[in-house]
# Entry
Amino acid sequence: MSRYVYLFSDLDAAQAAAGPDWSDVRRLLGGKGANLADVTRLGLPVPPGFTVTTEACLRFQEGDGTLPDEIWSQQLEAVKALEGQVGRGFGDPASSLLVSCRSGAPVSMPGMMDTVLNIGLNDQIAEAAMGRGRQPRFVFDLYRRVVHMFGNVVLGVEDEIFERVLHERRLEAGAHDDTGLSAKDWEFVTEEFKKIVRSYAGREFPQDPFEQLKLATTAVFRSWDSNRARDYRAAAGIPDDLGTAVNVQTMVYGNVGVGSATGVCMSRNATNGRPELEGDYLPNAQGEDVVAGNRVTRHISELATAMPEIHAELVEMAKTLERHYRNMQDMEFTVEEGKLWLLQTRDGKRTAQAEVRIAVDQANEGLISKEEAVQRVKPDQVDFFLHPQFEPDAVAAAMSIATGLNVSPGAAVGRIALDADTAKRWADDGVKVILVRPETKPDDVHGMLAAEGLLTSRGGRTSHAALVARQFGKPAVVGVEDLVLDMESRVVRFPDGTEIAEREFISVDGTTGHVFQGEIETLVPDLADPHLLRILEWADEFRELEVRANADYPDDARRAREYGASGIGLCRTEHMFFEKERLPIVQRMIMAPTASERDDAILQLLPLQRQEFEGLFEAMDGLPVIIRLIDPPLHEFLPALEDLLRDLTDLKIKAQHARTLPELDDLLDQVREKQAFLMGVEELREQNPMLGNRGVRLAIQIPNLVRMQVRAIILAACACVRRGVDVHPEIMIPLVGHVSELRKVREILEAEAHKVMEEQGITVPYRFGTMIEVPRAAVTAGEIAEEAEFFSFGTNDLTQMTLGISRDDAEAGFLIEYQRQHVLPDNPFRTIDREGVGAVMRIAVENGRAVRPELEIGICGEHGGEPKSVGFCHELGLDYVSCSPFRVPIARLAAAHAALKDRPAEAPAEAAREMAGAT
Amino acid sequence: MSRYVYLFSDLDAAQAAAGPDWSDVRRLLGGKGANLADVTRLGLPVPPGFTVTTEACLRFQEGDGTLPDEIWSQQLEAVKALEGQVGRGFGDPASSLLVSCRSGAPVSMPGMMDTVLNIGLNDQIAEAAMGRGRQPRFVFDLYRRVVHMFGNVVLGVEDEIFERVLHERRLEAGAHDDTGLSAKDWEFVTEEFKKIVRSYAGREFPQDPFEQLKLATTAVFRSWDSNRARDYRAAAGIPDDLGTAVNVQTMVYGNVGVGSATGVCMSRNATNGRPELEGDYLPNAQGEDVVAGNRVTRHISELATAMPEIHAELVEMAKTLERHYRNMQDMEFTVEEGKLWLLQTRDGKRTAQAEVRIAVDQANEGLISKEEAVQRVKPDQVDFFLHPQFEPDAVAAAMSIATGLNVSPGAAVGRIALDADTAKRWADDGVKVILVRPETKPDDVHGMLAAEGLLTSRGGRTSHAALVARQFGKPAVVGVEDLVLDMESRVVRFPDGTEIAEREFISVDGTTGHVFQGEIETLVPDLADPHLLRILEWADEFRELEVRANADYPDDARRAREYGASGIGLCRTEHMFFEKERLPIVQRMIMAPTASERDDAILQLLPLQRQEFEGLFEAMDGLPVIIRLIDPPLHEFLPALEDLLRDLTDLKIKAQHARTLPELDDLLDQVREKQAFLMGVEELREQNPMLGNRGVRLAIQIPNLVRMQVRAIILAACACVRRGVDVHPEIMIPLVGHVSELRKVREILEAEAHKVMEEQGITVPYRFGTMIEVPRAAVTAGEIAEEAEFFSFGTNDLTQMTLGISRDDAEAGFLIEYQRQHVLPDNPFRTIDREGVGAVMRIAVENGRAVRPELEIGICGEHGGEPKSVGFCHELGLDYVSCSPFRVPIARLAAAHAALKDRPAEAPAEAAREMAGAT
# Structure
C-alpha cells in the first residue's frame, strides 16, 4: 500500500520515500509541506500537522472525483497522531482540536484553492468551548471565519456576498474596525453566513468536522484541475502531472485576547537591507487580519515593549532560520496566550539595495560565501543604482493615484501630454512631459522618445508601449484599467477619482507601477554605495573576463575608470567630428572638389584629434585604449537630403515673391548654391548606407584621412610618453570583410606610425587590429588573424548583417510585431542571438585563435553590457567585454556570475536556497 | 658534366634527363624546343636543329654575363652534328649552312628576344654562294635580313632606322612591294644596314658566323633578365627561375624562286570550324613576309593549283598533326625548291563558333572523346551565341577606323553622344546612342546605362569604363589612343583621320576591339546551331547538376524550356505586381487605411496571379515550378519620395500663381492630397530597405497577402490538373532568418492550401521551402530544415549580407575602386566569393542535409548562370542551379565541366593539349 500522508514531524520517512534530493521531497510534499516539515525538524515551534502528498492528488485525478478510501483512511490515522501530539481531539467537544487546510504544489502556482482556517468547528463544539470558559466573541470570530472560508473556497460561494454582511454589520454597530464588533455581532454574522451557504451553495454548512476536512481536501485536489490552474500551467510550462499536496495543520489563535497576536516579519529590512527585524503585527487577531487592512497594524519594533520575551524569541528564531536557509526570511507568526508559533517562512522579497547589503552582511557574518553573495545579486539589480528613483520618504508621503504594470523601471516626472505630437512639441520646447495614452502605436514613437515616461490604460507586459519603453529606457506604467482620458476637455481621470488636466505634473514609478499626483523628488542612488562596491570587488576576484568601456572623450574615460573599467574597448573617433566647431571642417573635407583641398581640411582635423587622444591616454594611464578609425558613411556628416530639398523649395518660393531685382538676384544665387550643395549630397547618398561606403572602405578610398588619424594617435602617444604616461594604443580598423582590405590599409598606416615615431624619436607600443562585424570577416577569421593582432566583435553590425535586419528601421517597426507574436525569443539587439550571431562569433574565435593563439578578442557592441550576453562572451572564451561606462559595474558582476557558473555547484547553499523558496 | 644542348632528333635523351612528364620536358627545352623535337620524332619534315636548355640559361644568369665555355663547347658539338645531318658546313663558304636562333621559354612570355634568321651569313659566304650559282637577289635578300634582325634584336638598334632605309629604297625604285626590288637594291640595302649597325651599335656586323651565333645565344639569355620580361613575370606570377631555352635551327628558304614559298595555315577554318585548310602563302618569300603585309598573300586553296603535290602533302601533314595533338593546328611552313618543311605548329586560335564545330567534328571523327569535346568549349563561349555580333561579310567589307581594347564583348550600333547627359536624354527619346568619352567616371554611369555601347580614348582593361561596361553587359572598346574629342565643334577625330560629328552613326565591336563608321548589320547567332546543340546534349550526359530557369512569366518559361531548363527555380511573384494595370491595385493595398480595404485590394490581385501561375504550370508540364512569395519592401511599389517632394514643390509654386479663386482652391486640394500621400510614403520609408520590412516579414504582418498568393497557386494548379497538366508547385518563402518565422507562416499557408484543395476536390503535390539568403538562416540551417522541404540559395542577398555590401550602391561606387586596386579578386556579385559566401553556403548544406538528408538544395541568385559559380555549386553537392533563360545553355555546359573535373584525368589527351600549347 502506498503511503499518502506524512506528519510534519516525520520528514525522515518522507525523505526516504521521496529520494535523496530536496527537490524530490518538494515534489512529493509540495513546497509548503516540505518547508513546514523542515522547520519542524529544526526544532522551531511549528503547530503540528501533516501533509497529504502530491501522489495522492494524482491518484485522485485518475478516479471518479471522490477521495479514495485509501487516502482518507491514512488522513484519519494522521489526525489521530495529531491528536496525540497536541493532546486534543478533532471533533471532540471536550477538547476541540481545529485545523487549517491549504494547498501546496511543488512550484508556486496561482489558480488553486487557498486556505480554510478553523476546520473542525461546529455548533456543538462552539457551545462546548464557551461552556469551558472560552470567550463567546472569540468562539464566534472563529466560527464566522470557517463558515466564510469554507463557503467561499470549498463550496464556491462568492466572497462579496459574505463581505457585504460584514460591511453592513460594521455600519450598524458604528464600528471603526472589527475590534468594535461584539460577541453578539459575530454570532449574528455566523448565523447570516450559514444562511448564505444554505441558499447559495444549496446545502447546510457541514456540522461533521470530518466531512469538513474531507470536503476541503477534495476541493484542493479538484482545484489542481481547474481552468485557471490549467491555463497558468500551460502558459508557464509547468507539467500537469506534478499534482498538489494538502497541508493540514493544528490551529493556533492570535485572537484569544491581549496575550495573543499575529504578525508577519522579515529577518532584515527589505528596503535598505539593515540587519533589523522589519514587519507588522496585530494584538488579538487571526490570520489575514494583518494584511487585510481592516485594522491599523503596529510596527514589529513595538513588540519589544509590548511582549519583550516574545520579541527576543522572534529575533532568535529569525537568526536560526537565516543560519539554516542562509538567506533573509519572510516569516508569519502567531502568539497564542504568550506562546510564539511559526506558521510559515520563506526567502524574503527585497529591493535591489537591500539585496546588495544583505548579501554583503551575510557574507561578512559567515552565513554565506563570497561566491554566494556575488551570485545572489543579479546584474540587473545593479541597474537600480544607476536609474533615478523617487526619494523613499517623498514616496511614502505621497498618495498613489493609480497602479499598473511596472514594465520599464525608473522614476519619471513631467507634465501630462495626451498625444504624441503634443508631447514632441512641448519636449522640443524644453518641457518635461509624461505621455499618457490609452495605448501606443508605431505612430506614437516620436512622442514616446520625447517623453520622460509613459502611462497607458491598456496593454500588458509585451504591449507596444512596454516594448518601446524598455527599448529606449523610458520609465513606464501600462494597463491602468480605470484610467479615463477625456480628449474633449483634455483631462485624465484616475481610478481613485482624481482628475488632472493636461499640462499638470504627475510622477510615474516604472519600478513599482505606482502613479502619483504632482512632482515627487527623485534621486540617483549612489553607485558609491559601500556594499555595492564590496560586491563588485568580490565579483572582480571571480570573473575571468576583463571589462573595458566604450568611451569617446577623456571625461567618459575617467568615469569609466572610476566604475572599474580596465581600459577602453572602443573609442569612436568620428564622434569628435560631429562637434559644432569641427563639423564645418569635416563637411569641407567631404565636399572638397580637389584632392589637395581635401588634404587641407584633413590636416585641420589633426590637432583636434590629437588633443582628445592625449586626454584618453592620460585617463587610461597604464591601460589599453582601442581607437577605432573613422567608421560611418560620409553623408552622415551632411544635412539630410529632404531638409535640403525643403529649404530649396522655400528659397524658390521666396524668389517668386522678390520685390526688387537685387533681392531676386541674391535669392537666385542662394538657390544655385543650395542646388549645387544638394547635388553633392545626393551623389553621396546610398540606398543602404549601413552596407555602404564606410569603415575600411573609406580608408581605402581616402587613405590620407586615416593616415591623419594614425598620426594623431601616435603623436598623442609620444607626447604622453614624454610626460611619463604609460600608453597602450590599439588601432582598430572597422568593417573589414576581406583580409586584403586590412592588409592594404595596415601597410599604409604602419608606415605612417613608424614615420611619426621616427620624427618624434620615441617608440610607442601599439597594436593593429580589426572589428569583426561583417559575417565574412567571421567566417574567414583565420585569414584575417594573420594581419590582425586583435579582434573586437561589433555585435551591433554583426547582428544587423547576420540577421539581415536594419536596427533603426526594425526596432520601431516589425521587431515590435515580432516580439508580440513571439517570433524571436529576445530582441537580438539587446541580447546576443546565441544560435545565429553566436554561432558566427564562435566560428571567428575558433578560426582566429587557430592561426594566432594569443589573439586578443573582445566585444564592443552594446551587448557587452548586457548580462546574458556577457555570460555568452565568457562561454566563448573572449578576453574582455566593453560597454558604456554606466554599464561597467553590471558587466563586472555578470562576468563574475558567468565564471562562477563554471564552478562545481556548492550543494548545501543551493539546496538551502531551494528549500527556502517554498511558499 | 651537365648536358646543356640537345638535338631536335634526340628527344629521347632529353626526356630521360628531364623526367617522365611532358611538362618536365617543356621545362628543360622550353615550349618551342620541346615541340620541335616532338614533331621531329613524329617523322615530319622539320629542318634539323638543336636546343640550348633552360638550365644553360640559369647557369648563364649565375655568371658574369658571358656564355660559359662549357655551354658554348656543347653548342659547337651540336653544330657539328647538325652539319652531319644536313651535309653542309656552318661558316663554310663551300656549302653555307645558315641557322635561325630563337628564344623559347617553358611558358609563353612576351618581353624576350625574338628571332634572328640567316645566322652564319657573311661577305665571304655570300660571295661564295653567288659563285656557286645562287641568285644575287636571293643572297642579298638573306643578307639584308640577318643584318637587320641581328642589329635590331642582338645589338639593340631601333627597328625604325632600318625600316626607313627600306621605305626610301622602295620609293626610289617605284616598287609596289618587295618583289619590285632588284638584286642591286638588296645589295644597296645590305650595305646601308651594315652602316647603320656600325654607327648605331658602334661595331661592325660580325663577320664570324660563330661569333654571330654566340652573341645571339647570349642575347636570348640576357633578355630573360630584361626589365620588360621581369615585369611581365611579376604581373603574371611566373617564377624567375624557369629560364628560357635557345633554339638553333637550320634555315630553309622559301625565297629561292618560283618553286619556293612560305605560308601559315590552319588545319580547319578558324572562323566557322569547317573541316578545310585555311590560311595564306606567298611564293618566293621568307619568314615574316606573309604576315608583314608588304605583299598581297594568296589563299591556301590556290596552292592546290600552284603546287598540287605540296598541297596534298600539307593536307596530310595537317591530318597527322591533328591526330597527334588531337586539336586543330596552326602551322608555319616553307617550300624550298619543291620540298615542304614544317617550321612550327601549335593549337590554333578560333572563334567560339569554330570551337564548337571543331569539338563536335573531332569527336565524331574519333579524334577526341565526347568528354574532351565538351571540356574544350568554354561556357563563356556559349555566350557568343547569345550576344549580337556584326554580320561577318559586312564587317569584312567595312573599314575599321580605330582599334582599342576589347573589354566587353558584343556588337553595338548607335549615334555618337559626347557626354552622359546627352546620351541619357537621347536614349530616353528612343535614340540608340554610343557614348564616346575620353574616359568615364561614376558621374557618367547613367549615360553608360542608357547607351548601346561605349568607346573611350583612355583607360585599360580595369578602367571604370571597362568594369562598368562588363557589369552591365554593354559592348565597349576602350583605350583608343589617338581618338580626339573636339567638344567645341562636337566632332570625333579617329586615328585614321576620319572625322565624325556627334549624332552620326558608328559601330563598335567589343568582341574584337574594332570601331567602324556608320551602321553595320548585326545578327544574333543562332542558339539552334546544330553543333552547339550537340555539345549541350553531350554536356547533359555528363553533368550532375540540374539546370532550372528564373522565369516570372509563361513566355519566359517556354523559352527556358527550349533552352533546356528542367523546371523553374525562381518565379518572382512581385514582378507581376509592377505591371501597369496592377500597380494601382497594389498601391491601394499598401496605403489602405483599414484592414478590410486592404483585403479588398488583395482579393483583386488573386485572379491576375492565378492566371500567370496557370501559364507557368502549363509551360513546365511535368517539371517543378518554384514560386517565391512576395519579397521586396512595399515602398518599392510606390513613387520615390524625392519625386513626390519635387511634384509638391511644383504644385505649390503653381498655386502661388493661380489667377482665379477656383483655380487656387483646386490646386490647394491637390497640394493637400499630394501631401497626405507623401506622408504615407514617408512612413513606409526605411534607412536600409535591403535589410528592412520585406520577405517573410511582410508575410507575418500581412498574412492575407501571402494567403492570397498561395490560394492563387493552388487554384491554378487545380485548374491545370483538371486539364491533364502534370504540376509540381514548390512554394518558397523568402528572407527567413529564424525557423519560427518559417513555422508561423507555413502553418497559415498549409492551412490555406488544404482549404483550397478541399474546395476544389483535387490534391496537388506541393512542397514548402525557403530561400537561404540571410546568413543566420545558413548557420541555423539545421533548425530551418525541420520546417523546409527545400532550400534555394539567394546568393545576391546572401552576398550582400555576408559581405556587408549594398550591391546597387557599391557596383557603381567603391567596388570599382576595389577591383582597380585588386582588393577583391572578383566581383562577388558576379562570381561566388568561395572563401566567404561559399563557406556560409557550405555550413547551410551540411547542417540542412544532416537534419533532412533528402533536402533539395539549389541556387537562384544570378551566380546560378556564371560558370565558376556553377562549378562551386557542383562541388557543394547542390541539386540544381537556376538562372535566366538565356544563361541556361551556359549553365548546362558549366555543370558538365564541373562534373568532368571530378573524373580521373585522361592523361594522353591532357598531355597532347599541353604539348600543342607550346609556341
